[in-house]
Amino acid sequence: MTFGEKLRESRKKAGLSQEELAEKLNVSRQAITKWETDNGIPDISNLMSISNLFSISVDDFISEEKTAQVVKSRLYESVTEYDIDGKKNFDIKLGSAHQISVSGSDEEKIKLILSSDSLANLKQDIKTKIDDIKGRIDVEVHKAKTVSETCAKNELYIEVILPNKYVSHVETDTSCKDLRLSNIICQDFEFDGRADSISIESLTGRIEINCNLDMIIDVGTMSGSIEINQIKATSRIRIPHEQEFRMVVKGIGTNVLYEENGTQAEDFSSSDSENIIEFNGMKSELIIEKI
Question: Where are the domains of the chain?
Fold first, then answer.
C-alpha cells in the first residue's frame, strides 16, 4: 500500500473529509488531494503531524513510499524536447506503457521523458517523433520489434510536459495501467485508449475520456467538465467532499450511483454548478464517491 492509500484509508477510518483533515494539519485541501493520489508526499513536519493525528509511526506510513522514491530515479532515460512558438493543437500517440503522466507547465516547449529500469537499449529501441505541421503538433512514440507490448506495459514510463500557454486542443491515444493528468489548462483534452486508473489533479477546461475498461478515476480540483464515454463498463469516480458539480447522464442503459463514507447515498450533485460530470454510452454504470 502506498503512502497515499494509507493516508486516505486513515482519514476515512477517522471519519474526516479532505477539508477537515486539511484544517487539522493547517494545509490546503489541494495538498491532501495531492498526497492521497501519490503525486507528492508531505515534508517531515507534516509527516510528524499526520503520524501523531492517526497514531501511526512515520516509518509505517512511508515504508512503501521509500521504495517509490527509488523507482522515480530509473536506470535508463530518454528525453526529447521541442520549442513551441504559438497556439497549437496537439495530437499525441504514445502506444503502450505502464504509467503515463501528462502535465502542464509555464515553459514554451513540449518535453517527453521515457524511462525504465529494465530497457537498457531504451534510446535505440524506442524513438520519439515530433512534427510541427502548421497549427498542429504531432507526437508519436515508436517501439522497435524487439520491445513487446507486454514489456512496454510492464516496464515503460512516459512523462509528457505541455506548454499551457500554447495548448488549445489535445488528443492522446495510448494504453496504460496508470494515467496521471495534472495542471491541465486547455480548451479540450481528449483521451482515447485504455487505462485501469486515471488521476486528474487541477483541471481547467474540458476532459473527454473514451475507454471501455472498468476504471477508477480520482479527481482533485476541477474547473470545467469531465465527460466519460463507455460501453458495457462499470467505473468509479472519486471526488473531494467539497467539490461541486452538475451531473449529466446520456446514452442507452446508463446508470449513475452515489456513495459517501462507503455506503450508497442520495444524489449529491448540484443542478446550478458550472462544473460538469457527464456520463454517456451504452449499458454502463458510474459510481460517484465522495472522499
Answer: 3-72, 76-290
Helix spans in the chain (H):
3-13, 18-25, 29-36, 44-54, 58-72, 122-125, 149-155
User: What's the pTM value of the predicted model, to 2 decimals?
Assistant: 0.78
If DSSP states are collapsed to H, E and C, what string results for 203-253? Answer: EEEEEEEECCCCCEEEECCEEEEEEEEEECCEEEEEECCCCCCEEEECCEC
- Which are the contacts of 291, defined by CB distance < 8 A and separation ≥ 6? 8, 12, 17, 18, 36, 238, 239, 240, 241
Strand, helix or coil for residue 188: strand
Q: Which CATH number fits domain 3-72: 3.40.50.2300, 3.40.50.150, 1.10.260.40, 1.10.3720.10?
A: 1.10.260.40
Q: What is the DSSP letter of 130?
A: E
Integer angstrom CA distances of residue 21 from 25, 48, 50, 53: 6, 14, 9, 10
- Report the alpha-carbon distance of residue 39 to residue 2 in Å, rounded: 11
Among residues 168, 286, 273, which one has the least CA distance to residue 227? 286
pLDDT of 30: 78
Interatomic CA distance for residues 124 and 121, integer angstroms:
5
Q: Which of 42-46, 50-54, 234-238, 253-257 has the lowest mean pLDDT?
A: 42-46
- Annotation: CATH topology of 76-290: Pectate Lyase C-like (2.160.20)
Residue-wise pLDDT for 265-290, tens only, equals 999 999 999 999 999 999 999 999 98
